[in-house]
Amino acid sequence: KKRTTYDLIRSFRMFVWGLTFVGPVQTGWFHLADKVLGKGTSFTTLAQKIFYTVFGLGVFSNACFYSYVQCYEHYREGPQVISSNIKTFLYNELPSTTLASATVWPFIQVVSFTVIPLQYRAIWVSFWMVGWNAFLSVTGHKKADHTQKF
């Protein structure tokens, strides 16, 4: 079904996602990364921060997003449908989403970890998250394809 009108409820849900999950998680992550991996910008430190951001935080956040969408899109259908859709989305969409993330975010994170002061990193990344969340919204609101088996 093709959408022809603006979906205010969907926009509100995306706003809630950003406000309650993305913002706090990013802020906490940037503080944790500096504390655990160091504040330096050596190649090794930078590579570790980017790797853990893309393949740790990114995979976790994207999996949580797909789960969030399935919960609010199918809450009336019950936990079995939600669980089945979450598994399907994670199997079908998470690998390609992770690949897309690995092609976009390292460049943004290089600037984030080398130029942007810690207190402004979440704001800097949130600016770029607008486009990323639009991508996630499009992929996350597709119908679950149950024809592919695990």
Proportion in β-strands: under 5%
User: How many strand segments?
Assistant: 0
What is the CA–CA distance across the termini? 26 Å
State the major sheet.
none
Mean pLDDT: 88
The DSSP helix count reads 4
- Counting helices, strands and paired strands, the structural category is mainly alpha
Helix-strand topology string: HHHH
Helix content: over 70%
Write the layout of secondary structure elements.
Layout: H1 8-37, H2 43-74, H3 79-114, H4 118-140
Helix pairs in contact: 1-2, 1-4, 2-3, 3-4
Gist?
81% of the residues lie in helices and 0% in strands.
Descriptive report:
With 150 residues, this protein is mostly helical. It is 81% helix and 0% strand. The chain has helices at 8-37, 43-74, 79-114, 118-140. Helix 1 (8-37) packs across helix 4.
List keywords for this structure.
150 residues, elongated, mainly alpha, 4 helices, single chain
